[in-house]
Automatic annotation (TrEMBL):
Signal peptide positions (record): none
Protein name, UniProt field: Circularly permuted ATP-grasp type 2 domain-containing protein
Domain Circularly permuted ATP-grasp type: 78-451
InterPro entries according to UniProt: ATP-dep_Glu-Cys_Ligase-2, CP_ATPgrasp_2, UCP005522
Pfam families: CP_ATPgrasp_2
Native source species: Leptospira ryugenii
Length: 474
């Protein structure tokens, strides 16, 4: 069968060892793929794609002055994570979120970590995500980070590293849930044979976490979306429907006497908890950006007075900053007294003199990113860039060194991927989703993003990437 010709050179492959043998966790999948044959696999892939299209699972791509709504590309060959590997990853993710939550509590409170000079004060206070308006805030239950999507990658030896933290409005969980449902229909026999941990109960865990933030029984909950033109609107409506809660825009909300109400055909209805999918500074024109047309006047004041719970808390963006990311191992050590279970990718800070010099001289060998860039934008992959692109990016770094970091080019692990009628190696990352409520819940699996372009290391959907189902074995 065509899988016999599969090659993955000089990288860690999730399915095959360097000797070309299938890893134990993939034995049954490999056997099944060989028994199906190429034509049947292509047929099932086509059926899965049609199922996803009928569900309307889309994202919006922005560029060239226009926007396009697209179906998220999907590959039917799953990514498998053995149970013993997952146990370590789960522990590491819980550790990281605990430490970052304590960091935010301290940062906007006593500021001990700054006084102890674990992180330079100017690094924190110059972050675009640091909001002085949040100093002194006390979020419900002392939880700042309620929903997180942490991006993980493997190095050439197969060791997982944290590539970045997404603590503001992480997206992609709807694709995880829908991909799983389609895979169950596409390969029911695999689900019968393999002990694959479930992900369908994520909306239940999400709702339970949101309910935990309220001080009333049976709280009224809403998902706050920027609107139908937002790239992740499908996910906003999907999660609201799955949780059985309201989906609202800023124009649906009003603040009266420091309480938040939703406009309905029967009058105003008080809201207790909001899962916001809108950036901090667009949330309230009275407190942040006065030009925001998406926000609700007075909602931040209502939050400060404890009359509305917001997830995630305002101000979490500072811990999302890629410069702050480089200090997370120190943050874990400072607050928990532990070494980081999942290491960071080695990172150079362009704001530091020695690092700056190294990055400028070696930009052709590095990945350089803007501190608050996202979606694969605001970055350069040195070995795949032109001399002119390198020179242009050097000017950006020189003009604002605080805003840039650099990392070595990681040869991301690969997973067999169906490309037309052939199976080829494609690079992947992994975004598990973590909920912080009464306890910390880590979805077993997460979103495996795959770079569908041959040789590409950029997995973002906006840059030609797709997704795979992620199977954590029980």
């Amino acid at each position: 069968m065509f899988i016999a010709d599969y090659e993955s050179k000089n990288v860690y492959d999730e399915m095959f060892s360097k000797e070309g043998n299938a890893r134990q966790s993939y034995h049954f999948l490999k056997s099944k793929m060989e028994s199906l044959g190429g034509l049947e696999l292509v047929k099932r892939s086509s059926s899965a794609e049609k199922a996803l299209m009928s569900l309307g699972i889309t994202f919006t791509l922005y560029g060239e002055g226009e926007q396009q709504e697209r179906i998220m590309p999907f590959d039917v060959i799953p990514r498998i994570v053995p149970s013993e590997e997952w146990v370590r990853m789960e522990s590491g993710l819980k550790q990281r979120i605990q430490a970052l939550n304590l960091f935010l509590k301290d940062l906007y409170g006593e500021g001990k970590i700054l006084k102890d000079k674990v992180i330079p004060r100017d690094i924190v206070e110059s972050s675009a995500g640091y909001l002085k308006q949040c100093i002194g805030l006390k979020p419900p239950k002392d939880i700042w980070i309620h929903i997180t999507g942490t991006d993980l990658v493997r190095d050439g030896e197969g060791t997982f590293h944290v590539l970045e933290d997404n603590l503001r409005c992480p997206s992609g969980v709807s694709y995880v849930l829908e991909n799983r449902e389609v895979m169950k229909r596409t390969f029911p026999e695999l689900f019968d044979k393999l002990n694959i941990r479930q992900v369908y109960d994520y909306p239940y865990h999400l709702r339970s976490m949101l309910e935990n933030l309220a001080d009333v029984e049976d709280p009224v909950i809403a998902v706050w979306t920027p609107g139908v033109f937002n790239s992740a609107y499908y996910e906003h409506s999907f999660l609201a429907q799955k949780m059985g809660v309201f989906l609202v825009e800023g124009s649906d909300l009003v603040v009266e006497k420091d309480h938040v109400f939703m406009k309905t055909t029967k009058g105003l209805r008080k809201i207790d908890v909001i899962y916001r999918r809108i950036d901090d500074t667009f949330m309230d024109p009275n407190s942040f950006r006065p030009d925001s047309l998406l926000g609700v006047k007075g909602i931040f004041e209502a939050y400060k007075k404890g009359n509305i719970a917001l997830a995630n808390a305002p101000g979490t963006g500072v811990a999302d900053d890629k410069v702050i990311y480089s200090f997370v191992p120190k943050i874990i050590k400072y607050y928990l007294g532990e070494e980081a279970i999942i290491p960071n990718v080695p990172t150079y800070l362009c704001s530091q003199e020695d690092d700056f010099k190294y990055v400028i001289e070696n930009i052709h060998n590095l990945v350089v990113k803007a501190a608050n860039g996202a979606g694969g934008y605001g970055m350069i992959i040195g070995p795949k860039s032109t001399k002119q692109e390198q020179e242009d990016f050097k000017k950006l770094i020189i003009g604002d060194p605080r805003n840039y970091i650099a990392q070595p080019v990681l040869n991301l692990s690969t997973v067999p991927t169906l490309i037309a009628d052939k199976i080829e190696a494609r690079h992947v990352d992994l975004r598990p989703f973590i909920l912080y409520g009464k306890e910390i819940y880590v979805m077993p699996g997460g979103l495996t993003r795959v770079a569908l372009r041959k040789g590409s290391l950029v997995v973002n959907s906006s840059q030609g990437g797709g997704s795979k189902d992620t199977w954590v074995l029980g």
